[in-house]
Amino acid sequence: MVTVKKEGIVFEKTVLDFENEGVLNPAVIRVGNEVHLFYRAVRSGNHSTIGYCKLSDPLTISYRSEVPLLVPEFDYESQGLEDPRIVKIENIFFLTYTAFDGVNALGCLAVSRDLVHFEKKGIIVPQITYKEFDRLANMKNPVDVKYFRYNQHNVTLEKDGERVLVWDKNVIFFPRKIGGKFCFIHRIRPEIQIVVAIESLDELTETFYCNYFTDFSKHVLLSPKYPHESSYIGGGCPPIETKQGWLLIYHGVRDSINGYIYSACAALLDLEDPQKEIARLPYPLFSPKLDWETQGEVNNVCFPTGAVIFHETLYIYYGAADERIACASLQLTELIDELMLNPKENEN
């Protein structure tokens, strides 16, 4: 078992209007010796913006903005910008987030060169109805029946005059191009999917995604496998490059008599062919155990979204009970060694 230290709560909600209901699920990136956090700030009524905080080391706050950094500007994000992640690719910071309009939740992108000014690029995931997803995804191979359980939205086709689309969240870029092309993961429940080998974001057209869905099973990266992730899984932190492969910290969810339980999980992907799973932990990396993880806006949640490395120690930042931001740490080499003891090819 990997030794994980719960470092505790990094920061909590305040009385400020934009974050008086909760702070959670931060995008995290290290620049020099500082750590920048772009977090989901929730105000009354479940309206979200993205707040900003800077740390002088992995656990010490040096600056926290009293106003949100990014706010809703367009109809598709009218009720919130949720659950950001961030990477740096060729001197440009790619910040992804989920836009929510009260009906649909879809992955979006904003870019920056200085972590201060961000340009929104809009929705980059498919905008597809359940009926169309059903038709396209089953063209070549039947998909897991759980897709229809999780994505029917009670078979509602329209709500408040808007089309109800398949929710596509947890968009996370790999922090470098692979073979000279962009790669990112996304999640339509219950599995994690991957988009690989695009030279430009302009390629993400309606036609591109129609072709993508007609061979949908080809794009499934990880499926629920172990008891702690038996309900569904989703992206967590941006992939971390190691000599052994891409370390992917993701979240796994299982149902219980007390509702869903969200845990942090770990897998290893091939460096040059990230669609290939090398290894996966057969147990959760860490789960909600402490009071501030088991009790909150949503109980029993450890939702990892960002990680940094200092002196071979991996610090994982996560939303705790959907109300506060916490951190856990572990030795990176220990985690990689443990993953290599659980390779995919040894499965029965």
How is this structure best described in words?
It is a single chain. This protein has one domain (5-342): Glycosyl hydrolase domain, family 43 (Tachylectin-2, Chain A). It has five helices and 23 strands. The protein has helices at 130-137, 146-151, 206-214, 291-294, 332-340, and strands at 5-11, 22-31, 34-43, 47-57, 60-64, 80-89, 92-100, 105-112, 119-123, 158-159, 162-163, 169-173, 182-188, 191-198, 220-222, 232-235, 240-242, 245-254, 261-269, 277-280, 302-310, 313-320, 324-331. The mean pLDDT is 94. Pfam families: Glyco_hydro_130 (PF04041).
Write the layout of secondary structure elements.
Layout: E1 5-11, E2 22-31, E3 34-43, E4 47-57, E5 60-64, E6 80-89, E7 92-100, E8 105-112, E9 119-123, H1 130-137, H2 146-151, E10 158-159, E11 162-163, E12 169-173, E13 182-188, E14 191-198, H3 206-214, E15 220-222, E16 232-235, E17 240-242, E18 245-254, E19 261-269, E20 277-280, H4 291-294, E21 302-310, E22 313-320, E23 324-331, H5 332-340
Antiparallel strand pairs: 1-23, 2-3, 3-4, 4-5, 6-7, 7-8, 8-9, 10-11, 12-13, 13-14, 14-15, 16-18, 17-18, 18-19, 19-20, 21-22, 22-23
GO molecular function, one term: hydrolase activity
InterPro entries: Glyco_hydro_beta-prop_sf, Mannoside_phosphorylase
Pfam family, one: Glyco_hydro_130
Tally of strands: 23
> What characteristic shape results from the CA principal axes?
globular
Percent helix, as a range, is: 10-25%
CATH superfamily: Glycosyl hydrolase domain, family 43
CATH architecture grouping? 5 Propeller
Average pLDDT, to the nearest integer?
94
Low-confidence stretches: none
Largest sheet: 5 strands, antiparallel
If you compute it from the alpha carbons, what radius of gyration comes out, rounded to the nearest whole angstrom? 19 Å
Amount of beta strand: over 45%
Structural class category: mainly beta
* Element pattern in H and E: EEEEEEEEEHHEEEEEHEEEEEEHEEEH
| Tally of distinct domains | 1
Distance between the termini: 21 Å
CATH class categorisation = Mainly Beta
Task: Briefly note the CATH topology name.
Answer: Tachylectin-2, Chain A
Distinct helical segment count: 5
GO molecular function, one term: hydrolase activity
Pfam families: Glyco_hydro_130 (PF04041)
InterPro entries: Glyco_hydro_beta-prop_sf, Mannoside_phosphorylase
Keywords: Glycosyltransferase, Hydrolase, Transferase
